Amino acid sequence: MKAETKKLVQSRRKETLKAIESLCLLDDNLMTLVFDRNVEATELLLKIILQRDDLKVLEAVAQRDYKNPMPGGRSITLDIYAQDRDKKVYDIEVQRAPKGADVRRARFHSSMIDVKMLKARQEFKEIHDSYVIFITADDILGEGHSLYHINRVVEETGVYFGDGSHIIYVNGSYKNDNHPVGRLMHDFRCVSSADMFYPTLAKQVKYFKETGGGQGIMCQVFEDLAEKIAMEIAGEMAEERAVEEKKAFACRMIARGKLTIEEIAEDADLPLEVVQELAGFQPV
After folding, report:
1. How far is CA 69 from its chain centroid?
2. Side-chain half-sphere CA neighbours of 51 within 13 A
């Protein structure tokens, strides 16, 4: 390796390690590594949020893809997928930006989980309970509570509908060290494992942020993310160039005046309104 290349690699690694130092569990890159395949940590998280001591998690997977069965339909990737011994399904989403926790997103996640849960010829009553849990950096519902439970009720009676669908928002800005959720959110905001309350979480955070092996994994995650972003940017630029070339072709055809606007749009593979705009088309 040439001296300049080696120096550049070392410089980039130093910058990456500095970025890793500032991460907390509210950041996707660290959170997914801490909870992926970590049944103990996921079980702790759910016990605190659901306020249950009897919950037993059997599976915990980070970044699980749920493909939409409809052609062209939007798919989702769950931050953390978990299932307990009663086959109840949990989708735990961590969102720093409020727009990432839109209430309709929670609805969509819940519907996608239901679609995947019921197989052909199963009865509807066989759908297990599902929980979509959003842990948000801010109090997006704005009432100062640690937790917000959203369940369907019959408006006329106020009675719980009981369809097994649950949505919970966790206020990541909630501060109360005497409350389990307050301590949990304190740990999610911590950048140092030494300051955390829950040893199960602190142990994993320390590994990924403070040991050579964990830092190596984190650095690889950053490198993969940078490569993915670069590829996406390159793809967008290629698409933009292709569109500009199509427009240039359309302009040449317009200047020749031998084809109709509709024919040019078809030949250039452009929307009709785009070609009309290029031609200065004025609707009658």
Report:
1. 19
2. 10
Residue 23: closest CA among 157, 222, 162, 178: 222
Domain extents for the chain?
A: 22-210, 212-284
Give the contacts of 157 (CB within 8 A, at least 6 positions apart): none
Please give the single-letter amino acid code of residue 124. Answer: F
Q: Name the token pair of 195.
A: 């300051």
Tokens 């949020």, residue located: 49
How many C-beta atoms surround the C-beta of residue 42 within 10 A?
A: 25
- What is the full per-residue pLDDT of the chain (284 aa) written as tens digits? 566 666 655 667 778 888 888 899 999 889 999 999 999 999 999 999 999 999 999 999 999 998 888 888 889 899 999 999 999 999 999 998 888 888 899 999 999 998 888 888 889 888 999 999 999 999 999 999 999 999 999 999 999 999 999 999 999 999 999 999 999 999 999 999 999 999 999 999 999 998 989 888 888 877 766 666 566 666 777 788 888 888 888 888 888 888 888 888 888 888 988 888 888 865 54
